[in-house]
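Re: the 464-residue chain
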Amino acid sequence: MPQIETKPSPGDAALHPRGWLGVLSQSLDHVFHFSDRGSTMSREILAGMTTFSTMSYVLVVNPLVLSGTGMDRGALITATALIAAIFSIIMGLRTNYPLAMAPGMGVNAYVAVQVCQGMHIPWQAALGMVFYMGILFLLLSLTGLRQKIIEAFPVSFKKTIGAGIGLFIAFLGLRNAGIVVANPRSLVALGNVASPSVLLALGGVILAIVLVVRKVPAALILSILAVTIVGLFLPGVNGHAHITDWPQHLFSRPNSIMPVAFRLDLVYPWHHLAQSIPIILALLFTDLFSAMAVLFGVGARAQLTDADGNLPRLKQALSADAAAASGAALLGSTTAIIYLESAAGVEQGGRTGLVSMSVATCFLLALFITPIIAVIPALATTCALVMIGVFMMQGLAELDLKNIVVASTALVTLLLMTLTSVSDGLALGFIVNVVVLSAAGMRRSIKPIGWALVGLFILHYIAR
């Protein structure tokens, strides 16, 4: 019989270019199946670059925040990039979802400011607590208990926790820049607004807000870079000629990760159980909610959910997310989380794990411009921290604040998270929520595991 000659359709040509690029595209398609989801290799790579541009501020902010504990900043830059690359790859391969991971902003600020500086716990011990949280997190994910714990918390309380962390992060940014300062009479007061550093930080915040409002890509990193460049020409403080020091080099080999990697103290938490357990629980609950929110939000936007709104590979995503917590602690940083900025890549058309591979590649390449990252001053991150707080505070818009139970729980939780600690705000806020619901005759809305958590929190405060 004569052979029937078939010709590729124009759509196939677009999905798989000719030549070596076509071979590479087809090979990657066999792994990630982007053509089945209506995407192309070039679109997936561009989406990954877009996601990286929106979350690249983590290379600046995470090392600056954690270096306040005494950790080596150069090593933290390397650790941050490696953690983002490694766990983005793992997430992409495990799920084939366009999700990127990196050390989380809320957890690092909590550990650095409240755990290490506030409670005088060594950073090695704090990383040990993060590691144990990751192990517990993984067990909860594999056994299905993670979902039950999440369901025990009212939706309104989950949104309040996110907003509370956002408020704390924004306050930290303002404090780092000297925009707010300690005052024994009023707790806090306005800093010296005539100072060049304070004016520059305020200008950075305004710039970031404007760029975000105008939907400029990579608004946060652009704001950080703008403040850094202006700081080259403004007088500094504490013996520095300028706010920003000129870099000695533009490119260099990455710094060694060893000053922070594998330095965690796994013995300290066992010797200080009463102190460690509430910290570990606070870390656990913070990560519990953020991952689920991002997974379903980004998954729905990327059209990865099924007819019932569920993610087919949810268990794989949760296990990869849980493993990233302990893995990040081993490499010298706080918990790695799924970044909401993954949505930027989805908006660019990304649909598969190839986006995650592209993000990871960008993080690894960024290691070679470490000298530039290292000179970015702490006040330059204020704009990013405030905007992260703004994004996280938006969850309050979905609360019914006319409901006294919701409003009272939110007020207690937000105030305590900002003025005391994230862990105390979470614990006492949840206790208030359960007690008020019970007193209002709504006991049936409280799940058994919710009562168990209240009992655990109360025992912690009694044993203090």
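Residues 273-301 form the longest helix (29 residues).
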